[in-house]
Each structure stands twice: as C-alpha cells, then as structure tokens.
Amino acid sequence: MTKHIVEAGKPATKLKSEALQVLLERGLVHQCTDLEALDARLADGQVTAYAGFDATASSLHVGHLMPLMTMRWLQKLGHKPILLLGGGTSQVGDPSFRNEARPLLGDEQIAANITGIRHSVERLIDFRGEDGARIVNNAEWLTEFRFLEFLREFGSQFTVNRMMTFDSVKSRLEAQMPLTVLEFCYMMLQAVDFLELSRRHDCALQVGGSDQWGNIINGVELGRKGDGKQLFGLTVPLITTASGTKMGKTAAGAVWLHPEHLSPFGFWQFWRNTADADVPRFLRLFTELPMSEVLRLSSLEGAELNEAKKILATQVTAIVHGAEEARHAREQGDKLFAGEGDLAEPTHHMDLSHLADGLGLLQLLVHVGFAQTTSEAWRLVEAGGVRLNSQVIEDPRRKISVGDLKVDDQLSLAVGKRRKALLAFR
C-alpha cells in the first residue's frame, strides 16, 4: 500500500481539490494512501468520509479535535461526514500504543457514553438536513455477525504475518505486554466497519490518528478485495505540546469537550494557557481564522502574544461550545487575568474516587492546565505561587483528600492572581 507522508503547506504535487489544499495548509494531513487519486476524487464531487470514536468515555477530549476539525473542514467544503461511534468495538478494546488493555464495558455504560459523545460533537459538525452529517453505531452490524459466519466471510482476508508488522501490535509485544485475541481481532472489526460504511453509505474515506494507520490500511485493502472498490485512508498527526506531552492528556485525566465534564471557561482557560511555542501551530490546526490572520498572530511576540492566546482560546471555545459561551468565557478570563473577582461556577468536574487515596497537588495542577508537567508544577509550589482554598501551599508532595472539600464538595485552586480553577467533586 502506497503511503504519502506530507508536511503542512507542502503538497507533493499541484492539487485539484480545495478540500485537500485546505487540509494540507492547516497541517491536518500526515499520511494518505494515494494522495493524487484522493485529490481527484475530492475534486470530482461530494465524498463521504468517516472518523471513528470508541465509546470508552461519555465525552471526547481535545485530543480528538484533530480528526474532528478535519471532518468539519471537509463538510464546509462540500463533503459529507460520518461519525462512527463504536458501540460494538467498545466491547472489545483497541490495543493501539497502549501499555494495557482497555477495561471491557457493559451495554448500559456504552449506551450512556454514546449519548454523551453525541453532545460533545453537536456544535462541531452540522447534522441538519439531508446533506448533514450522520452518526452511525457499528453495533448495527457487528452484533449481527455469528462467529463462524464472520470467520467464513472475512477470516481469509487477513494474515497474522501482516498484523504482526503493525506498530500497535509490535509495541505491545516488544514490551512483553499481553495481547489478547479479543484485541487482536479489533483490527479486523475496524476493517469491516469501513467495508460496511462503503456498502451502506458509499463511504470512500477514513480519517484517523497516525497510530491507526495499520487498521485503516486493513479497511482499504478489504474494500479492494471484497468489493473491488478504491477506498482511501488519511491520517492526522498525533499532536504533542511543546513540553512533549500528548495533546489533550494530563496526569490526572483529559481536557473534555462536554461542558458537564469541563466548563466552557475551564476549556477557554486551557487554551489561554497554551505555551508560547505552540500558539502558531494551534491557531492553524484548531481555528478557522484565515491563514493571513493566523500568520499575523503567529508573528506576535512578548506581551502581544498574550492577545493571540486569547484569540486562540476564544476561537476554539466558539467552535466547541458556541459563540455566546466563548464570549462569556473571554469576559470572565479578562477579569481574572486582571486580578478581579473569583469564580462563581465550577470550571472542572472530577469523580470523588480520585480522592480515595489522596490526589497529588502536582497532578491536579497539570490536570487543570496550570502546568505542563509535574516538574513545572513542583517549581510553581516551591515559588510560593500555588493556593488551595485561598491558602498558600508550600509542600509539593501535598495530597488532596475529601477533608479539603468545602461547600458543595468544591475546592479552589489558583496560581498567582490570574490562573484560577474551581473544582467540583461528585
């Protein structure tokens, strides 16, 4: 399978389709199975594309914004997105670059997670009208297969030799971590998803993270072998911050898109606290500002760069939570960064179970985005700039327990005068 690896703004050839031009310019393309053929297909008319998300939590997080922004741009430029929710595959687990298997979920939890994920993406993608995006649950077909029927139809289309070459498998084996048959079969199930979407909805393109490349290739090849169709795979880069951490992940959890998990202001504040070095790239990837404005803002330095961070935060918050919530978040942020007032509503929500054995203060500082790493958080505490419930904390090893909670099971956390969070535990 031919693989093209491309850089933002540097297509290998002159492109015909506006969609692929924009995705490349924005830095949303890492790998593509056949760049020229996909370009011709996108230029020829509407293409249906899908991105898949397993229902392992009740919200998506900012790490999912890369494929979501890709689907958003495709829709804006005349193509049709499908968001595939893994009601079926969530019962199995995905081994991709994980050191241990995902916990298996029950049907009720998966259904609840799917409902939450739907809410996470309602503003990002337009589902209205006949040409609107579609949400599909792969349980529609995966739960209908009988085991022997599945093996007879698809078993001969995959080789163990090929699967062993995929990074998602090799990383587990090289680390001498167990890899169950259930997880191994996940790759087959994802390939069948692509085939079924091709047959049911004329879907021709799968979008995913670069860690999903092997799984995507399986689907492309299954479409060719099974139906003689040319299907396409496109991966987005896996984004790490300037500190080297994976985008959207923290030591204590994820930066959620669902407002019940993270308030619009908490979300805005996460982006406002972006490291200076990440601002130009994030403006390109996560906003819809014209590239001329992206370049202007990216050239700012010193105190002016803070204004670029506010614009970044407001633009991303408007895409995820709506323009009104973004405006309120900006106003609240301006007051707090000016050292005026306190938070009236929680910015973050966490489960009480996090406090069972004591939650590390350093982990909490990273979780709310006040530090990129625990080492940075340690330095903030040592400098005397961290306050828990308005009290300066001097011990970086401080653990937070249920006894620290105040009214309504909340606690406040602040770094200096401008960074404040109000956490609610439930």
TrEMBL record:
It is an enzyme of class 6 (ligase). A motif ('HIGH' region) lies at residues 55-64. Pfam families: S4, tRNA-synt_1b. L-tyrosine binds at residues 50, 186, 190. It is found in: Cytoplasm. Keywords: Aminoacyl-tRNA synthetase, ATP-binding, Cytoplasm, Ligase, Nucleotide-binding, Protein biosynthesis, RNA-binding. Homodimer. Catalyzes the attachment of tyrosine to tRNA(Tyr) in a two-step reaction: tyrosine is first activated by ATP to form Tyr-AMP and then transferred to the acceptor end of tRNA(Tyr). This is Tyrosine--tRNA ligase.
